[in-house]
Structure of Catalase:
Amino acid sequence: MPQKPGAPSDLPAIEAARREFDPVNITTQQGLKESDDANSLKAGVRGPSLLQDFVLREKITHFDHERIPERIVHARGAAAHGVFQAYPGNEKYTKAGFLQDPAKQTPVFVRFSTVAGSRGSADLARDARGFAVKFYTDEGNFDLVGNNIPVFFIQDAIKFPDFVHSVKPEPNNEIPQAASAHDTFWDFISLTPESFHMIMWVMSDRAIPRSYRMMEGFGVHTFRFINAAGESQFIKWHWKPLLGTHGVAWDEALKTNGADPDFHRRDLWEAIENGVYPEWELGVQIISEADAAKLKIDLLDPTKIIPEEVIPVTKLGKMTLNRNPDNFFAETEQVAFHPGHVVPGIDFTNDPLLAGRLFSYTDTQLLRLGGPNFAQIPINRPVCPVHNFQRDGFSQQRVDMGRVAYAPSSLQTDAPAHIGKLPGGYEEFPQKADGEFLRAKPELFADHYSQATLFYVSLTPAEQKHLQNALKFELSKCDTLQVRERVVENLAHIDAELAGEVAKGLGLVAPAIPAPKLAPQYKPSPALSMVHPGGSVAGRKVAIIAGEGHDAAEVAALQAALKAEQVSWHLIAPTLAPVKDSKGNSVTPDATLENTRSVLYDAVFVPGGKEHIDGLRLLGKAKAFVAEAFMHCKPIAVGVNAAAVLDDANLPLADIGTDPQALKDQGIVVADSTGKSVPQDLLHAMRFHRFWDRPGVDKVAA
Ligand code: HDE
């Protein structure tokens, strides 16, 4: 059931710990009512503060200890509560309890994050995004700790510290923040060819998502499902957003980071507050052991995907995020995910990257959350009973009773015991292992480029151009020539045009090697492209520029149409002073041309109204607003007799054509003499998300 903000939590531990604001009296931590919270104890009004002031000391000491270490990676994030509900028929694949009963709702807590930046960094960094889901199941917590990209930079966990050190700000001057566009990152990458498949993804529009609500999620590694009969199959996890997968333009990301560094955090928060609950379908690619042997893709290699056209995604259920956290620190900051939190029916494979992760998460959380009892923090507590003989440690919250804290024991006959072979116990899949100790990789791990080529050739031409431009931008920020050259050499093994374009942008020449071809086992995969128009526009946001004298009827008609599709809007005027519309009504703006800009919206509408249009034509900020939206390939609509704002913005409309239909095909809606079709035309254009092929965008000055 969707929950309204403030509604009871599905998690008993959170519900028990929630505290309404208490309006009675301020007390010390010991419950002593404070007579004065504003003055420390002094020897005379102008005298020294006294050491005996335990009220001052307690308050300052607590404050001094408010901060905990941020996550070493994925420090910046935002989270939400929700529910997961299974589809019927999953029992043939797995015995995992939360995937069985379609009538049952399993509470979830999901944290999205960037990887490289610190806690206070901006949301629209070019980066992979974390997509970590905690399922509070009746059999214990299951964490699906994934990313929005299905592969990773490295094949073995032993290289993770090197990789992270290279992408983090450089250690001598801590520059740059939340950016991979610097020497150390590209130095490491250029010497690590296994990273180039991931580089294709992370230089694509996937790495600058429009919204957390519009990202796919992936488990990256191959896991196992085990059903009640003990049969096992390999699986790869997928989350499919019902709103589709969408990115922004790079120039837009750069500007958004200044205009609203919390853009993704705010977007998620507002969508949930507005009741536009984000939804994803959970799915798996299922691969039998026999099929795995035929694939020519090593399933233990986390730098490889299995194209969805080869093994389609089987949908297992749906997740709905429907409640914002009450307290960022208590929930979003203290939540501790771990890929090793599994339930019966789910098991691991020997992916060497996964092996390192299974060690790392608890290790880092011991430091970050201050000792071994962080599983007792409300957000981390399972909803099922927990019994064991783990005792004591910093901040122990339980008061375990009795003498017996060990097993076997004869002193307490009802002490907890392991479940053994009875149903409900977690049993590892009896996988065989027999080999010599060595430090080496399987043969197919050496194929570094074939899936990078697959990714690149599966994109639309506009997406390919964005990827080329991303590489040009990033590498042009590297000071060291050899680093730039080595990256281009690697690109030449992926695609000749890509290498050539990037080389040109850097004033280099791509190496003359035979042009790589798509490997015979692959066909271009449409699932890798993000351009799939036609989805829902729920939760999108439109800028309505509405100054003095704007046409009231046009704005009202658009607002009604937007509301019906759960699209929100901001009325933007030159100042926050109320403006009069054409009917003389006083309208209070939501934002001003000074305090917002087009990058924060999905589309722009300028209604008609002579006085209003004449006024806007004098304002550079209004022209820049429209020009920037054009440049970022967004839908723009103008009302009756309002087309002059397009001319004033100096848009290269002639490159598109003068015919209204040609303009409409590029997301530019110009009202006819009635303006009646504008709302539906604008919504239609918004379903395309962006018009990435729009001619002339490079000519716009904005
Ligand atoms: Fe993580 N990762 N990771 N990672 N990871 C962490 O755990 C690590 C990897 C992912 O919102 C840390 O509690 C190693 C892949 C997410 O709290 C740390 C390796 C994927 C989050 C850690 C990887 C992820 C983390 C830092 C390579 C996608 C944020 C703080 C062997 C499948 C979870 C923490 C949250 C966080 C280790 C690679 C996803 C240090 C050693 C691949 C979503 O333990």
Summary: The longest strand covers residues 313-323. Residues 71-74, 77, 111, 113, 130, 132, 145-147, 152, 157, 160, 220, 335-337, 353, 356-357, 360-361, 364-365 surround HDE (CB under 6 Å). The chain has 20 helices and 18 strands. Confidence is low (pLDDT under 50) at residues 1-5.
